[in-house]
Amino acid sequence: MRFAFILEEKAHFPVRCLCTVLEVTRSGFYAWCARPVAARTHDTQRLAVEVAAIHAASKQRYGSPRVHQELQAQGRTVGRHRVARLMQQQGLRARKKRRFQTTTDSRHGLPVAANVLDRQFTVTAPNTTWVTDITYLWTREGWLYLAVILDLFSRRVVGWSMSESITRQLTLDALAAALGHRTPSPGLLHHSDRGSQYASGDYQALLDAHGLVGSMSRRGNCWDNAVVESFFSTLKIELVYTTDWATRADARAAVFEYLEVFYNGQRRHSSLGYLSPVAFEQRYEQKALAA
What we know:
Blueprint: H1 2-9, H2 15-22, H3 26-33, H4 37-57, H5 64-73, H6 80-89, E1 129-139, E2 142-151, E3 156-163, H7 168-182, E4 189-192, H8 196-199, H9 201-209, E5 213-216, H10 226-238, H11 248-263, H12 277-290
Parallel strand pairs: 1-4, 4-5
Antiparallel strand pairs: 1-2, 2-3
């Protein structure tokens, strides 16, 4: 497939350069170009099947950049433009974004923390900063609310909880799950919006008990918690908007599979160099051990 890659990219780079990088000869490339069309068509057809299979395995969540990265991870040498063209020819595309409503209730008299995070969304190690929020999911039995906590370093979901009502217990359960899974050192920065669930005495007491430092978005400013807002947008595009759950139990099962199996363990994130959160953390740990 190296020659196919050169053919795809030669409009953007010199053939001599491409052949050198891929360790093939120009004479070999031009001989391949002279092969019968049927042989090259077979290569394209096989690649089209692989592209469609990756798109299907992602449950139509991947666009051409992530499909391209998955092919490379499988050892396939192919140009990103070729992948995009094959997806277009087959009518394959990632799901599109929709708008969604906020679940924040900041109309309360509880104390609120300063915006310590201040949109510093890049951190250099896990268990340095967590961000959290709540969203809602519709089922034919009624609403189901989801609270998640993300590690800002890897975007990994480290704690989450679901409930039929939007109470402080929902957020307390998500925080307890995160603390149980990660056991962070004192000083970890915990950022949320100003919702009453996060400002409650119970929630703040749990933060204090583990030495976590509270941070809250400014009033009415969703951009201060942009990473978790983006996560919810992705969740709704890739799972919620295409699903009609008959029961809350069905929704719980689907969310579990999405968070624990697909999102954390498989989904390629552009902000992580197209690694999954789990793989990104594993690479960090390997580098730390080798240092």
